């Protein structure tokens, strides 16, 4: 097996245009989101620089779901058209050689030419980790949300059930959202408690910009007793962003990754998912 250092120096076997899927995990604290920017302080910029260093030529990537500043990912799926042939394990170890410590490729899988990280996805999953404590987080700072008031889990679950399904989610849409339609199918909102940590899991066919964080703001408002659970249905029906709670912190939001048709055999778990509360 090639070492992490020597993997980047492996000789090219042949020129190819094989489409590859990569699973990427990252902490979003140091980056201004996923999407490439001229200043280069994004996850996509760092990943593409590492890929270019590994293969010796520019490489472009397409992701399954763009994340905002401060948002993390456990299994961001990207695709690229490989300009050289390397074994899948070499793409993982060789690319990671050139990445910062808070970004790491988790797996690599050759795909058919028609695979598209974004367009082939059937759904996307997010998780929000929230600390309920009188004292703000320290070790977890930047990696979880925080609320100092006690939360009523039953009230939040009742409220969440009212927005599951296919709806116009305009009330939870950021002004800068570029989605063609505000109608999305929210398939799952699952809320569990682990000690003083709460875990909110969301799955939908697609999400609007800031949709999860705006839903979180409303769920926390219900959980702390500011509004009854039925208020969330009223906000949804209003289709007005002004009726909803403020956008919640990005710190506790994790992109768990997309879901694809089973025959594609795309990995759906990475070690980071076991690390989350």
Structure description:
By secondary structure, the chain is α+β, with helices and mostly antiparallel strands. It has 2 domains: 117 residues, 2-Layer Sandwich (Alpha-Beta Plaits), CATH 3.30.70.580; 133 residues, Pseudouridine synthase I, catalytic domain, C-terminal subdomain (Alpha-Beta Plaits), CATH 3.30.70.660. Helix content is 22%, strand content 26%. The chain is built from 7 helices and 10 strands. Strands 1, 2, 3, 4, 5, 6, 7, 8, 9 and 10 form a 10-stranded mixed β-sheet that branches. β2 and β3 form a beta hairpin. α2 crosses α3 and α4 crosses α5. It is globular. The protein starts with a helix and ends with a helix. The N terminus is likely disordered.
CATH topology of the largest domain: Alpha-Beta Plaits
Strand tally: 10
Q: How big is the Rg? A: 20 Å
Straight-line distance between termini: 34 Å
Topology, please?
Blueprint: H1 4-7, E1 19-26, H2 43-55, E2 62-63, E3 72-81, H3 88-96, E4 103-111, E5 123-132, E6 145-147, H4 153-161, E7 165-168, E8 183-194, E9 197-204, H5 211-223, H6 230-238, E10 253-259, H7 271-275
Parallel strand pairs: 3-10, 5-6
Antiparallel strand pairs: 1-3, 1-4, 2-3, 5-9, 5-10, 7-8, 8-9
Concise summary:
The protein is of the alpha+beta class and 277 residues long. It is 22% helix and 26% strand.
Give a quick set of tags describing it.
Alpha-Beta Plaits; alpha+beta; 10 strands; 7 helices; ten-stranded mixed beta sheet; 277 residues
């Amino acid at each position: 097996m090639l070492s992490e250092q020597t993997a980047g120096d492996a000789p090219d076997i042949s020129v190819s245009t094989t489409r590859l899927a990569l699973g990427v995990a990252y902490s979003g604290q140091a980056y201004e989101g996923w999407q490439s920017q001229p200043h280069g302080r994004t996850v996509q910029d760092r990943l593409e620089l590492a890929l270019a260093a590994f293969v010796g030529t520019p490489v472009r990537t397409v992701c399954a779901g763009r994340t905002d500043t401060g948002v993390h990912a456990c299994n961001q799926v990207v695709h690229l058209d490989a300009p050289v042939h390397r074994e899948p394990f070499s793409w993982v170890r060789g690319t990671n050689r050139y990445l910062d410590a808070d970004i790491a490729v988790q797996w690599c899988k050759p795909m058919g030419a028609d695979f598209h990280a974004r367009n082939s996805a059937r759904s996307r999953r997010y998780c929000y980790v929230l600390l309920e404590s009188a004292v703000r987080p320290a070790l977890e700072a930047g990696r979880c949300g925080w609320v100092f008031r006690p939360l009523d889990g039953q009230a939040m679950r009742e409220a969440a059930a009212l927005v599951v399904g296919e709806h116009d989610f305009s009330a939870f849409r950021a002004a800068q959202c570029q989605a063609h339609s505000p109608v999305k199918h929210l398939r799952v909102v699952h809320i569990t408690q682990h000690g003083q940590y709460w875990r909110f899991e969301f799955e939908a066919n697609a999400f609007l910009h800031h949709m999860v964080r705006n839903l979180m703001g409303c769920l926390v408002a219900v959980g702390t007793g500011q509004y009854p659970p039925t208020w969330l249905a009223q906000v949804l029906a209003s289709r007005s962003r002004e009726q909803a709670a403020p956008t919640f912190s990005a710190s506790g939001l994790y992109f768990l990754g997309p879901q694809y048709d089973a025959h594609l055999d795309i990995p759906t778990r990475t070690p980071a998912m076991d690390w989350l509360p």
